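Please, structure for the following, as tokens.
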Amino acid sequence: MLSREENELITRVGPDTPMGNALRRYWIPALLSSEIAEPDGPPARVRLLGEDLVAFRDTEGRIGLIEEFCPHRRVSLYFGRNEECGLRCVYHGWKFDVTGACIDMMNEPEEYDFKHKVRVTAYPTCELGGIVWTYMGPAEKIPPLPKFAWTQAPAANRHVTKVIEECNWLQALEGGIDTSHAPILHRLLTDSSKRGGIKPSNPFVRGKAPKLVVDITNYGYQYAGIRPLDGTDDVHIRFYHFIMPFHQIRPSKSESGLDLDAGHIWVPIDDGNCTVYNWSYCPDGPLTEEDKLERGLGNGPLHVDPVTFRSKANRSNDYMLDRSVQRTETFSGIDGINAQDRALQESMGRIVDRSKEHLGPADKAIIQARKLLRQAVKAVEAGQSPDGTGTSYYPLRAHEAVVPNSADWRAELAPEVKREAILQTV
């Protein structure tokens, strides 16, 4: 459990909040590249960490991410004209470039020219892995670019989607890094079911409750769920990474059966909402069009509105819960693995009261994530760089296997992380 004060500390993300200041020291996904695909195309609204922004791609392909409201009369620049290397307010014609500088004022006579005195807040951006990332912190503290292994993969080998989740970012993140729930919430009741989920014959489900091992590193931690298999000396190990402050890397399989690295990024919109970016990549070849539908996960166009990024299964329709399916096919009765996650995480309310929790050993990864986030806040307040702003996470991958109980699973499944990089095991 956390005290109410600790809960407030790590859930509130607006400007000048301690956690907000810490998060602003990282590269943050702002939107999908496809949302502003064309130069001089329509701008897109972006809300990040409680700030209202507008993104646009200018005539030369540069990306601007600026505050939404024109400094003249405070109307929304979302309605602006994206033309000739700038976004022009349609109210009085003030125009701003990707740096936030005002470069023209249509309503002011030339002799009163004062555009050089006016600017809007603008944040630097980069484009990697089909995502536009931004940095919202002090310019002198900007970290290296977020070059995860999946962002460096060929476009045909990777896929990324997003969906808005109607709860605080931290409870969404904690659901993602909680490995003990997966073979329970996401289990299928029969191997013959065609719905998204984990079949009863899968060792992930057949195994006993997991022993969790968490290795603290300078990027966050690597962690494993180790499940003994009845009648054998083998264990099933599912191995993940948590990269500060809101990234997960996990092993997965595509709809067509390809071995994947996959994961989520839980990005705060504000205190009560977040955007979940869902990514996957295949090191061995391109993904199929069927893979990109994400039928089993519930993140693709069949489950999420491609314009609003809102899930079609939501609070208003009880997430399309089907009690007959719950009795005969799936443990939850909700279609889509990540749709199931969203349903339960949103059911906690916008910000869950963690002072009422009763955590156990299976929650070890969650407990450590909260600790690392509090440490990041303290580091930033002390003028230091928080963990996860280096480059040690660049080569990371995740793995899953059945191995002998005596096997050195770190050496076999986690060769990217050297022993000397493990600061502590809990």
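The longest strand covers residues 259-270. Residues 27-141 form a domain with the Rieske Iron-sulfur Protein fold (CATH 2.102.10.10).
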